[in-house]
Every structure is written in C-alpha cells, then in structure tokens.
Design brief:
The chain has 301 residues and is mostly helical. It is 75% helix and 0% strand.
Length: 301
Amino acid sequence: MKGFLPRTLHPGLQILLLLVLMMAGACVGYAVVFGWAGVGFGLSPLQVGAVMQAPSAYPQGWGVLMMAQGVLLFCACAGGALALASALGYRWAEYFNPRRLGAAWWLLGAAVLVVATVPFMSGLIAWNAGAHFPGALHGFEAWARASEDRAQVLTKFLTQFNSAGRFAVGVLVVAAVPAVAEELVFRGVIQKNLVRWFSPHVGVWLGAAIFSAIHLQFFGFVPRFVLGLVLGYLYLWSGNILVSMAAHFTQNALQLVILYLTQRGAFGWGFDPDSTEALPWPLVLLSAVGTAGLLYSCTGA
C-alpha cells in the first residue's frame, strides 16, 4: 500500500497529524449524527443540539445521545488513527499489529488481568476521590468537582437500562466502541510513536498519562493512569492491538454487566457506579499482588 507520507515521519509530527485527522473525523461524525438524527429520530440540526444539551427532557434523548457518543468517538478516534496509518502507506494490520497474536490465550489473559485489578483499583479510586489540591488551587478544585458531578448525572441517565435492548446498546457504545477507538489512538498511535521517540517505558508511561488526562476527570486520574499502564504494557509486550482492546472492553463491560444485574434485582445486592469506597484491604492487597504476578508472567510470554 502506497501512502503520501514517508514512514520515517518524525513521531511528534505523526501525533500532530493524528490530531488533525481526528478533528476531520469529528466533522464527519457530526454530519453522520445530524443525518441519522433526521432520518431515525425526525430531528432537525437545531433540535439535535437542544436534545444533546438536556437529553432527559426529551423522549428521544437517551437514544440520540447514545448514538451521538458512539458515532463521534468512532469517527474521530478510530477514523483518525486508521487514516494516519493509511497516509503512511501501512495496511492497518501491519501498523497496529506489528506482531502476530501468537496464542489466543493472550486475549483471555488480558481479560482475566483486568478482572483481577478490580479490588486494587477500588483502593486507588477511594484514595484519588478524597484527594485535595493545595489551598492556592481551591478554585480549580471546586470547578473540577462540579464538572465531575455534572458528568455523573449524565452517566446515571445513560446507564438506566430498563430493557435488554438498552443494555445491548450500552455495551456497544460504552464498552465496545471505546475499546476499539481509544486503543487505536492511545496505544496504536500515541504510545507507538512515544516509544519510537523516547524509549519503551517512557512511551508507555507518557501514553498512560495522556490517556488519563484527556478524560478530564481529575479525581479519577490515578486509577485511569494505572489502567493506561496496564493497557500500554499489554500492547508493548504482545505487539497486537487486539490484546489491549480485549482488556479495555472487559474493563468497561464488566461494570455495565454488574450495573445491569443490580438494576434487575439479581442476587439481592446493590452496586453504586458512583461509589468511591474501597473494598476490604485484604482483597485490595491480594489484587495488587495478583495483578503484579499476572503482568510479570506477560513479560515472558
């Protein structure tokens, strides 16, 4: 495949070009959203804007917002990353999967690893949620907490799965699309180029920091950063984007499954997706040790 850019293009320029292509992908995504909203929901572009500003006030709000989130994320992230690989003259598999999967257990192992991190992550979430900025940054802290409170309201609205159909849409939009689109961008392009620019470990850690920071959730930065490290090393060691995608999908889908079962009254136990309480410390400690052991086993795979 022949591209119009040299494969030796500087890593920093590749990342900058990715941002440009992501913006172009977002423009395509908005066109798709407005077209879909008109055909599927009977809404004009002005009405789409109003629905997205206050989705709970409209009967089509849930469907429109879910559709928009999925389309925009896929077009901007996946579209931008795939377009960059093509511009450099790579086949997509060649660019994002520099090594063959080798063994299918990589995918299962990635999923098991993510499940094993859950208690450990609960400890990080509890610690990060209770963190405070220095007094000089009190205004910023208040703004950040207010922003996250608004995001939680939207999350609660989108995760009200009153039917199996809604749950299936949620798994597609909240679990599958981010697993594919975000991994192509953050591991497949950004980490790949940071590793080439600096070194493997620096590339993984910088990539994880960017992955966490871009979500603009300051009181969840540390656990998302650690998740980014796990995903980054899985990609680095496996050489195949499908592995980090499998782990990312498991992370998101597991939360949705637990939430859906809770909403259906399964097992008689509750789950609060907004809870920042840590699990009992023996579980947290066991999870940390188990996660470290599983990661170490991956280094020799």
